[in-house]
TrEMBL record:
Belongs to the histidine acid phosphatase family. It comes from Zalerion maritima. GO terms for molecular function: phosphatase activity. PANTHER family: ACID PHOSPHATASE-RELATED, PHOSPHOGLYCERATE MUTASE-LIKE PROTEIN. Residues 1-18 form the signal peptide. The chain crosses the membrane at residues 430-453. This is Histidine acid phosphatase protein.
Length: 472
């Protein structure tokens, strides 16, 4: 109860008037989309509106002149590209969500951006001064697509994939699989256009819930809808939460949370740049991503100790942000705050951020502190953050492709150990190939175990309409 009262006080406390926001890094989920069961997955009009409304809220919080949490020196009306960086995997749902968000973060400026040419003629950007903000694509996360039913499969991290798959032959998984068979078989008339009797199980707990959830939002009629009682939907959602949480995070196997580790490194890099000087750019970093990244970071940062809600799949258009700020006054190039005067707070909005659903402050790392010092924040984040490619390759056990450059350091070896190659009889290139084959063998072995112990078979899913299929 004391923690709940503490969190409520944090969420409702006004920002200190003397605060200066030095930088912000945000992770934002996409808006409403079509079902993952049918490809391609597309952002809906509702989804675009959700992220657009969220962008409007954050404009009022960080961008507008006179905003309570105005980011230092951030242009209020006409965007300056060097001040803001936006990132998304190569995925239409996420990229279009980013574009819709930016439309309201920096709306059209009308005549404010009129340019006069040497001959005296004047021009303004199309669509009443529409502002074009680049959305950078992350080539390393090309497969982090909403078309993937489980995004870990696109992470490219061998050890993370093996760790996630190990959940499928854990005792807790097998118990839930057995205990929930009647539930999933009972709703088969609702989903039998997409999932057969053998597929209607906890193994597909997330995609089954996702299919039904999308249908309830968009379909006027659903086959055997009377089976979808309130208690049934609550149970299906809880099982989907459990399914995805265990694939995204495990305290005894933190490599499973590779997405959260990489996010932590991106946050540290961005905020460390923002704290460097008054002229540092960019100050506002925005990344669009999927629920799995939220989940894995929540686990790493021990956010479930603040609220059990952090173990539930975040809603469409949810957002979390790290605000870097100082109480020192004034802040300028000549009076830049010392690191000990800089703090960080974490805020989170489950669903579209708005005046009626404002982001709340939550304590990170199991601490009872809504604001922590920059040095403490760095110390805690560095315990699990992955900052560079070499760290990623080492943690993932990858030794081929771009990771081949770090083959002498992956796994703790170094260039000083080169002579060991002759002792083992393996050259560095050969060792890399063997490592890749071993990793592949482990992955295939785990998947075989999943199929044997999970009661799963490989099937080819049709994309075309069927008689009883729930339309996405």
């Amino acid at each position: 109860m004391a923690l709940k009262n503490f969190l409520f006080a944090l969420a409702t406390a006004p920002l200190a008037s003397a605060e200066t926001i030095l930088g912000v890094y945000m992770l934002h989920r996409h808006g409403d989309r079509t079902s993952k069961s049918y490809k391609p997955v597309n952002l809906t009009a509702l989804g675009a509106d959700q992220v657009y409304d969220s962008g409007n809220y954050y404009r009022q919080r960080y961008v507008e002149s006179g905003a309570d949490a105005k980011i230092l020196d951030l242009s209020s009306d006409i965007v300056i590209p060097s001040q803001i960086t936006v990132q998304s995997p190569i995925d239409s749902v996420l990229q279009i969500s980013a574009q819709a968000f930016l439309q309201s973060l920096y709306p059209p400026v009308g005549d404010l951006a009129v340019q006069e040419l040497a001959n005296g003629s004047e021009f303004s950007y199309p669509f009443d001064g529409y502002q074009y903000i680049p959305v950078n694509t992350d080539a390393a996360s090309n497969d982090h697509s909403e078309n993937n039913e489980w995004l870990q499969s696109g992470s490219g991290c061998g050890n993370a994939l093996v760790s996630s798959n190990s959940y499928f032959f854990s005792e807790s998984y097998k118990e839930l699989y057995s205990e929930t068979q009647d539930l999933y078989q009972g709703i088969l008339p609702v989903i039998n256009g997409t999932f057969g009797a053998e597929e209607a199980s906890f193994k597909n707990g997330y995609t089954i819930w996702d299919l039904i959830n999308v249908a309830l939002i968009h379909n006027k009629t659903i086959s055997s809808e009377e089976l979808l009682t309130e208690s049934t939907m609550t149970e299906l959602k809880t099982l989907a939460d459990t399914h995805e949480w265990n694939l995204a995070y495990n305290a005894s196997s933190e490599i499973r949370a590779i997405a959260g580790k990489v996010l932590a490194g991106q946050v540290l890099t961005h905020l460390n740049n923002a704290i460097s000087s008054a002229s540092a750019k960019p100050r506002f970093g925005i990344q669009f991503g999927a629920y799995a990244t939220f989940f894995s970071f929540f686990g790493l940062a021990d956010l479930p100790s603040a609220s059990s809600d952090f173990k539930g799949i975040v809603k469409y258009a949810s957002s979390m942000a790290f605000e870097l700020f100082t109480d020192a006054d004034p802040v300028s190039e000549s009076s830049w705050p010392a690191e000990e005067d800089v703090k960080v707070r974490f805020i989170f909005a489950n669903g579209t951020a708005s005046s009626s659903n404002e982001p709340q402050i939550f304590p990170l790392f199991g601490l009872n502190e809504g604001e922590i010092s920059w040095t403490k924040f760095v110390s805690e984040m560095q315990k699990f953050a992955i900052i560079n490619d070499e760290q990623w390759c080492g943690a993932c056990g990858n030794t081929t492709g771009s990771c081949a450059a770090y083959v002498n350091t992956v796994g703790g070896s170094s260039a000083e150990d080169d002579d060991d190659d002759s002792k083992s009889g393996l050259s560095v290139p050969v060792a890399g190939v063997v490592g890749a084959l071993v990793a592949l063998g482990v992955i295939l072995g785990v998947e075989a175990l999943v199929m044997v112990f999970g009661g799963i078979r490989l099937v080819k899913k049709g994309v075309g309409a069927t008689e009883n299929k729930i339309a996405a």
